[in-house]
Amino acid sequence: MKTIKLLKFVGMLSLLLILFYAMVTALIYRETQKNMFLKSYFIEYAEMIGTWHLDSFRHILTDDLIASLEHEDNSTLLTALSDRLGKLEACEEPNFVRAEVHFSTDARKVDTVIFSAQCHFEKGHAGLSIAFVEHEGEQYVHLFRLNSITTT
Q1: Which of 70, 103, 126, 136 is the most exposed place for a label (fewest CB within 10 A)?
Q2: What pTM value is reported for the model?
Q3: What are the residue ranges spanned by the domains of the chain?
């Protein structure tokens, strides 16, 4: 009798472990696919941002980022980057930095995924980081940042 109970327990435990393993594998696979998808967006969006002409990439930005770039304190930022770096020529393979989950004031879940890559411009190099957010099934740039700018 005890052997049957032990076998039932081991069987149930094995089944739970298999289900847990399947769920973890599915989640990892989904995140890997999403990251590969966003890597292609990184290159495409970096090329648009690297022109430094807001009108050519306004459609990929969140409303908050557009407002920030249009603010009088930042109005010369894109011109200064264009003068200092020139246009984007190429980016190395983007690397996943981190993912964050936030909740907005209206209780919507907001996923932010950040990638970065070393990019080469006409007049120098810089690390470019792009934070993506998804809204209604579309990917938008919520933030972009240049690090370690070197000019030639």
Answers
A1: 136
A2: 0.72
A3: 2-151
DSSP string, 37-78: HHHHHHHHHHHHHTT--HHHHGGGB-HHHHHHHHSGGGTTHH
Asked: is 2-151 a CATH 3.10.450 domain? The reply is yes
Backbone dihedral region for residue 5 (phi beyond 0: left; psi -120 to 50: alpha; all else: beta): alpha
- 118, burial (CB in 10 Å: exposed 0-12, middle 13-18, buried 19+): middle
- The pLDDT tens digits for 40-77 are 889 999 999 999 999 999 999 999 999 998 887 777 88
Residues 39-53 as b/e (b if ≥16 CB within 10 A, e otherwise) read bebbbebbbbbbebe
